[in-house]
Every structure is written in structure tokens, then in C-alpha cells.
Amino acid sequence: MYIHSIAFVAAETKIAQDAMYRLKHRYGHVSPDIAEVIVALGGDGFMLETLHRYMGRKVPIYGMNRGTVGFLMNEFREIDLPERIAEAQTVELHPLQMEAHTKDGGSMCALAINEVSLLRETRQAAKLRIKIDGVERLPELVCDGALVCTPAGSTAYNLSAHGPILPMGSGLMALTPISPFRPRRWRGALLPERAEVVFEILDAEKRPVSAVADYTEVRDVSKVIIREDRSMKIRLLFDPEHNLEERILKEQFVE
Fold first, then answer.
1. Residue 186: how many CA atoms within 13 Å on its side-chain side?
2. Does the global pTM surpass 0.85?
């Protein structure tokens, strides 16, 4: 595809801002509200912010690494950018929707591209009941927390919590406990991407829990419902030699 209009957005760091200044002068710049492609300059955290900010536009986003890890980013190069975008491979993602209910009767919905996590708020471990598609699968999990992640997010917090890496297109979500105490031998589950996961917080007054969808946090939850939002579609662009499927595969062989 030939790109007529590009919008550049950048993290607040000097290295990202300097890169954006040079790229704007080289290729021109339009508002992200009308651009055919958005180029995000920064690290993975900034890419997540960009994906959330422009999710409603359904515009493809091409990232170049001006941060640290850059798992969701392409290599930074100033030359031949329109050609790289035209030849890039598209990865389509559906976010998770978190519906969090609080102890005071309130509720809040938020979307997560990486994961929805539940975390204890105090020194005492959380106690969670887990239901999958309306069926109770674990009556009580005593833990620091638990998370549900997408394939794109499986190499992030999920991997640090010793959860499995999920290949893109696997049609799966990972349900991973965080520092489980009981049952000691339970290490999580692989779920169909269309499954609905419900966490019920047991003894919520004594053992308060927060729920986090990427970076949206809800404190003092009583119940959290998580499902894939098929109505939302995110389009990420990757250079053919650095596509996301290959990166996820490589992560499974890192020593």
C-alpha cells in the first residue's frame, strides 16, 4: 500500500522527541485524527498508550524503538520509512475487556491489550474464587494475585509470573496465578479466547484486592469479569524480518 499521510507521536524522552522532530521534517506530518498510519516512537509502555489512545480509529500503528526493550517496536531507522510501512506485515489484536465491580456497589469497564491482573492491596494474601463460563473451576486460590493475558501480552507480566508464552493466532488466553500459596501445585490454565473468566474476591473486607487493565486500576473490587472484546480491533505493523510471531517464538528459546 502507498502511504499518503503519516502522523508521528513520541514519548516525552529526549531521544524520542529528537527522532520525531527529524522524521517530521523528512516526511511531513498530519494529525493522528486523519492519518493513514501512526508512527509511535518510544518503548513498549508508550506503544501501549498509543494503542489505547487511538484504538477507536482502527488505524494501523507502526512503532520504532526509542525506548528500552521494544518488544512491540520495529528497529529505528530514519531512511525509507514509507517503503518499510508499505511492506510491513499486519498483526490484528483484540483487547480484553475488564468489568470490575467494587465493594461499594460501583463498577468500571476498561480494555487491556496485554493483561488484566488482580493484586492484593495489603500484607495479607488475596483469596479468589475462579469461574470459567459460569462453571466454578477453583473454589479458593490463596495468592498475591492472578492475571489473564492475551498472546501479545504473554511475554510481559505473564512471563514474569511464570506463565506460558502463547503464539499469535493460537486462539488462547493464559490464566496465571501470581505467587500462589494454595493450591500450591496449581500453575494456571490455558483458556479459549472466547471464554469468560470471573474472579470473585473472598473475604474482601479483610483482604482487599485491586484490578488493573494494562494501566487502568480499580481499587477494592468484589468481582471482576474478563472477556475478549471482539468488537475492537487493533492493527500493529511489523517489518517482515521482525514480525511479532517470530519474536514470541524466539522468547521460548531464550536461556
1. 20
2. yes
